[in-house]
């Protein structure tokens, strides 16, 4: 129904944005990967879209590029993976890192993402293994640093740091530094506070 939307970015949060397209405000759910690539509020942007239709809800999802949208569509085709979990997965890893984990059959890394149980991680590897070849062929080949897969606590802290204006790479690095100390904070607030000290 909608392939993309172009308009003014009037609201930007870690997992949701609002685009003003000719006077109509469209709310779109986005991953952290997409959110951190967006400019500041007030800028003109274009997002690829996917309209998820349920009996009682129409929800638009936005993506920075075609590759992320294709991976999202592949994820929700898997039994037990809905749009919300698909966005969580894409927030826990960049598309390139996710495909690398699937190619390497890195079940542990996938399982570390909030909401991804052992069986779901296994299904991701089995069902996306062949699809990832097609998806990956259209992705830019870039050298990336080893991925750090975060759990729910770390992801929540990372979203908070991104919403404060820090880039995803900065947030990931800061949180990883805190977690590497071994003296893990008990709450999201403590983790954010400690991470801010390292930035």
TrEMBL record:
Q: Which segments carry the region annotation Domain I?
A: 1-64
Coiled-coil region(s): none
InterPro entries from the entry? DNA_helicase_Holl-junc_RuvA_I, Hlx-hairpin-Hlx_DNA-bd_motif, NA-bd_OB-fold, RuvA, RuvA_2-like, RuvA_C, RuvA_C_sf
The GO terms this record gives for MF are: ATP binding; four-way junction DNA binding; four-way junction helicase activity
Cite the CDD domains for this sequence. UBA_RuvA_C (cd14332)
Q: Where is the signal peptide?
A: none
Any single biological process term in GO: DNA repair
Task: Cite the Helix-hairpin-helix DNA-binding motif class domain residue spans from the record.
Answer: 73-92, 108-127
Spell out the residue ranges making up region: Domain II.
65-142
Which Pfam families does the record match to this protein?
HHH_5, RuvA_C, RuvA_N
**One GO location term (cellular component):** Holliday junction helicase complex
List localization entries. Answer: Cytoplasm
Region spans: Domain III: 153-199
Q: Mostly located where?
A: cytoplasm
User: Could you name the domain of life of the organism this protein comes from?
Assistant: Bacteria
Keywords per UniProt? Cytoplasm, DNA damage, DNA recombination, DNA repair, DNA-binding
Query: Know anything about its domains from the record?
Result: Has three domains with a flexible linker between the domains II and III and assumes an 'L' shape. Domain III is highly mobile and contacts RuvB.
The UniProt function text for this chain reads:
The RuvA-RuvB-RuvC complex processes Holliday junction (HJ) DNA during genetic recombination and DNA repair, while the RuvA-RuvB complex plays an important role in the rescue of blocked DNA replication forks via replication fork reversal (RFR). RuvA specifically binds to HJ cruciform DNA, conferring on it an open structure. The RuvB hexamer acts as an ATP-dependent pump, pulling dsDNA into and through the RuvAB complex. HJ branch migration allows RuvC to scan DNA until it finds its consensus sequence, where it cleaves and resolves the cruciform DNA.
**What protein family is recorded?**
Belongs to the RuvA family.
Description of how the protein assembles with itself and partners: Homotetramer. Forms an RuvA(8)-RuvB(12)-Holliday junction (HJ) complex. HJ DNA is sandwiched between 2 RuvA tetramers; dsDNA enters through RuvA and exits via RuvB. An RuvB hexamer assembles on each DNA strand where it exits the tetramer. Each RuvB hexamer is contacted by two RuvA subunits (via domain III) on 2 adjacent RuvB subunits; this complex drives branch migration. In the full resolvosome a probable DNA-RuvA(4)-RuvB(12)-RuvC(2) complex forms which resolves the HJ.
**Protein name stated in the entry:** Holliday junction branch migration complex subunit RuvA
- Specify the species: Caldithrix abyssi
Q: Which gene encodes it?
A: ruvA
């Amino acid at each position: 129904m909608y392939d993309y939307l172009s308009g003014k970015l009037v609201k930007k949060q870690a997992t949701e944005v609002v685009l003003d397209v000719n006077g109509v405000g469209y709310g779109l759910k986005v991953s952290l990967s997409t959110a951190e690539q967006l400019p500041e509020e007030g800028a003109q942007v274009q997002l690829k879209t996917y309209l998820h239709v349920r009996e009682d809800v129409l929800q638009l999802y936005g993506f920075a590029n075609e590759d992320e949208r294709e991976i999202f569509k592949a994820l929700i085709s898997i039994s037990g993976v809905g749009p919300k979990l698909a966005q969580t997965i894409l927030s826990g890893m960049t598309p390139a890192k996710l495909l690398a984990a699937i190619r390497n059959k890195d079940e542990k890394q996938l399982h570390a993402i909030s909401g991804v149980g052992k069986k779901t991680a296994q299904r991701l590897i089995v069902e996306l293994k062949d699809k990832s070849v097609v998806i990956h062929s259209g992705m830019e080949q870039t050298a990336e640093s080893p991925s750090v897969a975060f759990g729910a606590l770390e992801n929540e802290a990372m979203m908070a740091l991104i919403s404060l204006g820090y880039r995803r790479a900065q947030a990931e690095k800061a949180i990883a530094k805190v977690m590497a100390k071994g003296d893990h904070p008990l709450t999201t607030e403590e983790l954010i506070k400690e991470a801010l000290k390292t930035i």
